[in-house]
Amino acid sequence: MMGERRAAARAVGATKVYGSGAAEVRAIDDVSVEFASGRFTAIMGPSGAGKSTLMHCVAGLDTLSSGQVFIGEIELGTLSDRRLTVLRRERVGFVFQSFNLLPSLSAAENVALPMTLAGTRPDPDWIEHVIDTVGLGDRRGHRPAELSGGQQQRVAVARALAARPDIVFADEPTGNLDSRTGAQILAFLRTAVSELDQTIVMVTHDPVAAGYADTAIFLADGGLSDRVEAPTARTVLDHMSALDAGADLPGRAR
Amino acid sequence: MTRIVLKGLWARKRRLAGSLAAVFLGVSFLAGALVLGDTLNSSIGRFFGQAYAGTDASVRGSTNVGDSPMGERGTIDAGIADRVRRVPGVAVAEPVIDGAGQLLGRDGAAIAVLGPRTAGNWLTDARLNPYHLVEGRAPRADDEVVVNRAVANQGRLRLGDRTAVLTPRRVPVRVVGIAKFGDQDGFGGSSFTAFTVDGARRYVTASPNRISSVSVRAASGVSQAALVGRLRQVVPAGTEVITGTALGEEGMTAVTKGFLQMFRAFLLVFAGVALLVGTFSIYNTFTITVAQRSRESALLRAVGASRRQVLTSVMAEAGAIGLVASVAGVAGGLGFATALEAVFSAGGASLPVGGLVLTVTTVAVAVVVGVLVTLLACLLPAVRASRTPPVAALRETAAERPGASRGRALAGGTLTAGGVILAVVSAAAGNAMVLAGLGAVACLIGMVVLGPVAARPAGMLLGAPLRRVTGVLARRNTTRNPRRVAGAATALMIGIGVVTLFTVLAASSRASIQDTVSRSFGGDLAISTGSSVGGGFEPRLAEDVARLPQIEAAAGMGTGGVRIAGTAVRVRYADPAALTQVLDLGSAARLRPGQLAVTRATAHSHGWRTGTPLPVVFADGTRRTLTVGGTFEAGGPAGDYLLPRTEWTAHDPQPQDTTVLIKLRPGVSTAEGGSAVTRAAAPYAAPAVQSRRDYIDAQASGVNGLLTLVYVMLALAIVIALLGIANTLSLSVHERTRELGLLRAVGATRGQIRSIIRWESLMVALFGTAGGVGLGLLPGWALARAATGGTVAVPVTQLVVIVAIGALAGVLAALRPAHRAGRLEILRAAAAQ
Ligand SMILES: Nc1ncnc2c1ncn2[C@@H]1O[C@H](COP(=O)(O)OP(=O)(O)OP(=O)(O)O)[C@@H](O)[C@H]1O
Ligand SMILES: [Mg+2]
Q1: Which long-range contacts (CB under 8 A, 24 or more apart) does B302-306 make?
Q2: Number of structural domains found in chain B
């Protein structure tokens, strides 16, 4: 696991500005960051720091005001909407905090959705394997409305991984779950990185969740403020406290 | 609360645009129909006012054989004019002659004006004469005529041109003057050829001492009533005197009670269909918006709003929409009246439209109906909104119940089945039309109720061939909320249902007419004036044709009005011996003088049989008793009553044939016979010679014109239905913003998103179209059976076209919603609440 790893995705001088004039908000400001291939990166930071914005821009869901982002060696800013869509479909996976699944499709159909949209016939054995891996083998024909929140998130994770994308982005995937269910999901993500060499970038508020990652980076006020390798819940907490103190932000210190 | 309502309306203005449009279009149609009716009423009033403005009294024959006082009357003695002129208080009295006369155009053929083709005398008193010269002078010699400007233009006749008038005898004339009627180029669509009074007596009444009536102008100081009183003292029996004012009113009522009443009813029926379709569109839109707002309503309830307040707020919203759209609709109605007028003119019915008339009643009716329809459509959704439990504010899912209940299936099924049974039974029953109509209404309600039950299986069925992912997703969405699909499709179903109904009815009555005509008509060729009033040719034409070596038999047939047993009816007259050689006359083949023949249906409904004596009154006042000499099949060229020519000719100053039916000798080809007949007809202003096929088709052609008008009217209902589908789709795109965003995030292209919406629209449209065809087909079948007495034609080609139009409608309806769905930004969508 040592040595120079290729970056699965990176941002160079990424800046995103919302609004203009007095209402101008620099959600992220001149952020340069690399997400190494085959590693699990956690993005942390206080609410409003720009975590989601950074992730959306790197994932090609949103466009930058200035700067560049790359998936592999492809610069997203130059792509047409169509090429971008195809790139997302083939090389990027997503897990959102909620509403990850199409209500009219069964769990298995939701997992196969990116491949179906691409017009490729998903390999049923593989889909079955992925669903079994997330422990929903007996629920494959159920509609989202018939699944619990945790089960729905597992289906979402299965979908993100099923297409074997270059990189998976997850925005607070455990935000709505209790700690035990959350732990299952996180363990599952960890396994995907360790055993399948999957690249995962995850936004989280939870130091325990960050503990599953290989690297934790910290954002504050739209800028990169800190970085921890091989974090544990404890080291992350320590960094958070330090940052809070340094930035003089109220509330978080403990 | 008002503020909340207004703010809510403003926030949802885009989503409400669809409801607004549906109400607006429906009300526009209604207001347009009312405006056009009033406008016609007033301009027809003006017309007759002009026609009789200078006439204080008129003396005319007292026998009237038409439906209205304006109907056909016989001639009176010419000497009455002189007698009237000597009455004190009479300033001017002029003999008036009016009859049939076809002016020939530059090309030598009769000028085919749409209205009656009339001829008469030019009144020398400018105040009595409703026409006035715009070019040339009044006629002085018997062969000089003044013609109205419209017919001169149509026949490309100029001052000094020599041509001829068929009265029906061919009279060579020279055009010396061109006249206008008031500010118009003619009276309605009619043509008028005016001779001198002597010329008119010679050619039109065909007798030097007969005239049609006497127009009288009073000396100053003498009232119309006083004048009429004095005139009554001097006129002989068999004549009557009426005031000029009454004459104008007679004309007006004849038009308003007859044509105008039908015309209004016709338009109002379609306005009703448009409003009904609109109601369903609005209902569906409101159902969806209310469901989408259920969390909002629940929040209102949670913070203390009463049910009644929630109900009132939704109804107030509906009322506001209804009011705005209806007021706009009244304005739209003015435009619509103009458009309708253009449609009817293009369809061949030229309407005398002066400035549009917008009455207070029209405004009131349109606005009240528009608002009521909107309120009615919104009542159910509003009640549902008010029932939202406060806890719904905390729940994730919308409160709309997606499924269809068992009770609904049962009720809808029963109603539909009942309707079907009624319709089928009606075929055998006595008052078939009423039963078939009831069956149609029951079917309609039943199918509307059944819609949500049928939507799911229909969606699966329609979507079954779809294999591509976009199609599959569309199918899933369509089957997910059957109520909504049914709601959107209902409007289209009603529109298409009515279209189908009329298509089947029209095809059946056409088939039925063609059937009877081709069964009874045994000839090979025909000469016919078609449906023109006052058109015809000399009876000698049939004799000339019959003498041709290629011809085995030819029979001429004319038409006119009489009273039989007190009722004014149209009769045909012909030589029975000749006619029976080309037409199957049943037991009437050997009709003798002193007899008349009637159709079996007429005989049956009056309880007449062979030998029944019937009192007959002719226009000239003659009363005769004719006995029923035989019966024949209804619906053929011989109409309902047939008189021997010998019984007719004596009572008609201008007997003319409107049809000649011809049978070729064996071995003579149609082409050969046709050209011989054409040559023989040349001296009679070359009326067109039709083949058997053309003649039979032409008998049913009236149906086609009517059907075209019906289609034009119904196109609007279809447009409203389309708006409904587009609106439902837009709302559902809005509602599924997050879902569509997610699809985009995981890799659906904009094209794929658009395609999903298009497929959904197509399925909804096809569902509605299929339902509509089903809805129209069965009652159409029953009504057609009832109307034609058995003949039912199902026009497969037309039905296929209707389905194709429905599908196209679906694609069109999806244009905007699909575009908007494709344009959704992924993140906005994914983040939407
Ligand atoms: N569409 C938008 N328009 C205007 N400002 C926005 C928009 N989206 C985000 N912002 C602003 O950008 C900043 C960063 O937002 P972002 O959602 O990236 O924060 P975050 O770190 O993900 O916060 P949280 O932990 O609460 O999810 C915030 O100040 C936010 O108010
Ligand atoms: Mg966030």
Answers
A1: B302/B390, B302/B393
A2: 3
